[in-house]
Design brief:
Low-confidence stretches: none
EC number: 1.11.1.6
Keywords: Heme, Hydrogen peroxide, Iron, Metal-binding, Oxidoreductase, Peroxidase
CATH topology of one domain: Catalase HpII,  Chain A, domain 1
Oligomer: single chain
Number of helices: 12
Protein name: Catalase
CATH superfamily of one domain: Catalase core domain
Distance between the termini: 86 Å
Radius of gyration: 26 Å
Catalytic activity: 2 H2O2 = O2 + 2 H2O
Shape: globular
Largest sheet: 10 strands, antiparallel
GO molecular function: catalase activity; heme binding; metal ion binding
Helix content: 25-40%
CATH class of one domain: Mainly Beta
């Protein structure tokens, strides 16, 4: 054997003498249980798949960097935004929402847009979508919503009746539904779509002064979308089309990039703005709060191993760094728990020890033990706090900014219930051709719904957003005579 060529070993490091033939009792005899190399290979193979993500199961990812281009340190003390020209490594994962691991990339579905910033103060995860809003605004509705997007437990098929039944009974979904059914519902590639933090967050500066903030990643490749017929054809020919496109673009040196901008709202405006600024089904008008450039994200390196880096990457909107905090957004508040808990179940309680998730800043804490502990488990160091042995201590300068809370505890709804203005404004901003395609997409998606009363209820929401939009959908579904247009 070539002396420079490495010999095959078992997982415990012992040399393997034969990797082609299992041990048997004679040439035809049964396999011997003492063939521990065979047993280990089969046992490991049976366990090679971790549970897929409940949502965002199908995705692609890439490494890159974020570079600050505008000094916003007066608004936030976040170290990775501290000076123009500063670069921070990032890992970004794009995904569809509802499909399984083997599903097609080119379906009509929101796209996940998650960025992990490996900052000097720990990892900061910005976990959003390619849309600025979402279907619901309270996390208590999320399991029910996702159930409608998954497979029917009886037929194991997608169920349009469940989808539109839920949406028609949840009018807050109308804005996102309008976006989803528009041209932007099927991006041409991951490179040709915007990304959004979607939620409202809080920025805090070194003086303890705070503002509300929304994130916008603007693609520098330009927006491109797929026509439904083209998307369906691609889904049949190459279901991994978006994954392949991202990998090949980076491999060929055509590095995709996005400009990061933010909208900033003074804290006091939250009490007087015409929409609740923490309602994730609504946007802030850019006329009221213009986009401010922050920096530029470039993806320039493909993963070396998909499973280790893309599949085992874990993102949580609760992974904050000093200078960035949560807002009262009810959907965000639920995600602060749900995402990290999903990773503890799917990848393991020590998922942040994996190389793709490990903070480059290092960690100092008292968490010990648990499955898949891959470091020295703290060695013999002190394992509790407070202690008298010089263990890591809290940093009072990094305490979260306080905020005022008022009212009675209870199951409270948002006080603003205008679910129609922004959806109608979006429709009226579209060209005639875009409007026609939107209506065609909605009609096509609603035709399979089993009950007319569900269709009629949903048409009622479209009518409230824009009378023309609703009437054209009713006409397309053949339900004009059953609709009260008053």
């Amino acid at each position: 054997m070539d002396k420079d060529k490495k010999g095959l070993t078992t997982s415990w490091g012992a040399p393997v003498g034969d990797n082609q033939n299992s041990m048997t009792a004679g040439s035809r005899g049964p396999t011997l249980i003492q063939d521990v190399h065979l047993l280990e290979k089969l046992a490991h193979f049976n366990r090679e798949r971790v549970p897929e993500r409940v949502v965002h199961a199908k995705g692609a990812g890439a490494h890159g960097y974020f570079e600050v281009t505008n000094d916003l340190s007066s608004f936030t003390k976040a170290d990775f935004l501290s000076e123009v020209g500063k670069r921070t490594p990032v890992f970004t994962r794009f995904s569809t929402v509802a499909g399984e691991l083997g599903s097609a990339d080119t379906v009509r579905d929101p796209r996940g847009f998650a960025v992990k910033f490996y900052t000097e103060a720990g990892n900061y995860d910005l976990v959003g979508n390619n849309t600025p809003v979402f279907f619901i605004r309270d996390a208590i509705k999320f399991p029910d919503f996702i159930h409608t997007q998954k497979r029917d437990p009886k037929t194991h098929l997608k169920n349009p009746t469940a989808v539109w039944d839920f949406w028609s009974l949840s009018p807050e979904s109308l804005h996102q539904v309008t976006i989803l059914m528009s041209d932007r519902g099927i991006p041409a590639t991951f490179r040709h779509m915007h990304g959004f933090g979607s939620h409202t967050f809080k920025w805090v500066n070194n003086k303890g002064e705070a503002v509300w903030v929304k994130y916008h990643f603007k693609t520098e490749q330009g927006i491109k979308n797929l026509a439904p017929d083209t998307a369906a054809e691609i889904a049949g020919v190459n279901p991994d089309y978006h994954t392949e496109d991202l990998f090949n673009a980076i491999e060929q040196g055509d590095f995709p990039s996005w400009k990061l901008c933010v909208q900033i709202m003074p804290l006091e405006d939250a009490d007087t703005y015409r929409f609740d600024p923490f309602d994730v089904t609504k946007v802030w008008s850019q006329k009221d709060y213009p986009l401010i450039e922050v920096g530029r994200m470039v993806l320039d390196r493909n993963p070396d191993n998909y499973f280790a880096e893309v599949e085992q990457a874990t993102f949580s909107p609760g992974s904050f760094v000093p200078g960035v905090e949560a807002s009262p957004d009810k959907m965000l508040q639920g995600r602060l728990f749900a995402y990290a808990d999903a990773h503890r179940y799917r990848v393991g309680t020590n998922h942040n020890l994996l190389p793709i998730n490990r903070p480059q800043s290092g960690v100092s804490h008292y968490q010990r033990d648990g499955q898949m502990r891959s470091d020295n488990n703290g060695g013999g160091s002190v394992y509790y706090e407070p202690n008298s042995f010089g263990g890591p201590e809290e940093s009072p300068q990094h305490k979260l900014a306080s905020f005022e809370v008022t009212g009675s505890a209870g199951s409270m709804a948002y006080s603003h219930d205008d679910h129609y203005t922004q959806a109608g404004d979006l429709y009226r901003l579209m060209s005639k051709e875009e409007q026609a395609r939107l209506i065609e997409n909605i009609v096509g998606a609603m035709k399979p719904v089993a009950r007319d009363d569900i269709k009629i209820r949903q048409i009622g929401h479209f009518l409230k957003a824009d009378a023309e939009l609703g009437s054209r959908i009713a006409e397309g579904l053949g339900l004009t005579e059953q609709i009260d247009f008053k």
